[in-house]
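Weekly structure sync, notes
Attendees: PL, DS, HV (note-taker this week)

Item 1: Glycosyltransferase family 31 protein
DS walked through the input record. Source organism listed as Discostella pseudostelligera. Sequence as pasted into the shared doc:
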Amino acid sequence: MATQRRGRNNNVEVVGADNHSHGVPSSSNPSLRRQHPSPIFPKGVSLVCLVFVFFLVVIIVEFTAYRLLSIPSYSISTSNTVATISSKSNSDSDTTHSTHDNVSKIVKNQNVRHKTAAVSQYTNPSPTQQPTITANAIASYEPTATTKGKRVVTAIKQHHRNAQYWKTHTPDPVPPLDSSSTSTDDDTINAKTDEQPPIIAYVVTLTKCKGRASLDGAAVLLHSIRRNSYGWDPNLLQQLKDANDDKQDGDKDAPIYGGKGGRYRYRAYVIVDPSASPSIKGAKGECARYLQKIGYTVLHRPPLVPLFKLADADDEDGDANGSSTNAFYDELKKSGYVGMQRPNHGPTARHPNENPNKLRFLMHDDGCCGYSELLKLHVYGLVEHELAVHLDLDSLLLRPMDDLFDVMLAKGDIESRRSKLMSMMAHNLPRTKDVDISKPIDAAFTRDYNSVKNPSLDAPVGYQGGFLAVRPNIQVLERYRSILQRGEFLLNPRLGWGGKHGGFYGDLTFQGILPYYYEDVAPALEGVGHNEIELNRCIYNQMADNPRKSTYKFPRATPLDPKAMGFRDTKICRDGREDCSDTDCQRTHPKESITTHFTFAGKPWDCSEGNAGTVAHDTCIGLLREWYGIRRELENWWLSPPTSADKSRPYYWRKETIANVHESRRGALDADGTFLGYCDEHGSGGYRRLVEPDEPK
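Item 1 (cont.): predicted structure, written out as tokens:
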């Protein structure tokens, strides 16, 4: 018998042995049988033992991975500084909010454990194809075993790196709101001489600079705000086209809705995470510098509460230049960290078997942007403004939001405000509440029914993270800080904030903490008024979504040919009602909407097909077409030289830049229709980027 041996450890490893298996000789050779002892176990039992050993090894590996997450502290050395993250769960108080009186009952009666959920973006199917899911768009609620350790290290390093920034910096102050500081452009102001209207703060958030395509969204969004605000001259539209459009362009390329100015002034802000600061040289700071250039005011903001404890070792040596840390950093340290004041006992206490750091690690990866998404809460801190609106970069104003602002600021007679309110608020939904029209309204939002896992009338529903209008209030901001310090988010099972607001996409951060505040915390605070409105999501933050569940595993629009598409609508309404036809946003014409959010319709910079093969297609194509039209108008505006009163505005003036602008309009995909020449093919690879304006002369 010939055998082959290869070295490993003791240089012995059997690779192959004729007809033998597991060391048992062939029964046709008695001499060989005499040379080998009988196996310890019968042949069948040997296989069972091997399987048992295999599963035992798997269990040991999984247990080791879990124990790594349970280590009390982590020490990560970065830039000659050691960040020690303690997992000690302190509790300065055993008291709980009075809002949690019924949480014990909820937890006791809850017998359904929330499973890991996923959220995805979809590639747009043609009418004869089933939808597919892009690999990079899937985000699970919890880290998988293979990536858990990596995510832990990443979370700590990122937290440590951002904390270093605040040793030598403080939050940017809001510039004074005088006539020279507003973003209303002097060359577009019409002849209005009456008292200046309030300035609305429009806010976006930048947590990291991942790519330039979405910056086109920021530029077009800003222009949609500009053209629907006080000071924009409607007569300028035709002047721009006459002066700057290509010869073959006509009225078909102009925006269809809005563009006639508005009753309120505006200023645009971008809240920036230190990891995307414009002060960073190179690509990481490029996005913020671009937004600054085109008209956004940059505001650096820290987390309300550090995600992890800031260790003393972080500031022993001061900054890189040897100076001591500033007073602001000391205050940031004193604010503690997420969950530091969580009660040790009671219905919102951490489960005994729950890793002390699990909540913080999950928040780091939650939703679209992780813990950084909570930077959006700084919209409450813009107290220099009477109103502030936070929008995602993939949003667009189709028409002015003046009626909403009138209602929120209690402007006009009460009957007029009541009429406006009835036309914009959500009606007959399970959580619709009465609004006191005699008082100003503190917040306006839409709900994200698409993220409801098990629809029912009492199912928890998050607020949609792409739209929030508020009356800024520092006290409210401080209450959010307190919520994070207490960290009363129930896991195992995933019941959410206060045991009520969880189990949906983004529940750990922005989309979950908002309903927790307005529905639990604020109502329980004695003497604290709260007056908020749920808006009709087909009018504000319109996403062209289907109000019914689909047989597909993710929300989908109603297919025109269910057999060809491979899925169909069910009779189940996502809001738990029997009839939800009054919220069928996929059939809502763009002329009925005020703002839109490009989620289900696809991104304009992905040259989306707009839900081809579904009833939502016409609505989506109409919204996409408007985005491209406003982009065209923005380009024409940048092609127009500024007046002497507005010399600081960027515009196109170099010959090569102007040539590039006209070339960017010559895409082959439906150039005379939806895409206006900005796409060569469907998909992000076919999109023609917006040409960056030149610096002022």
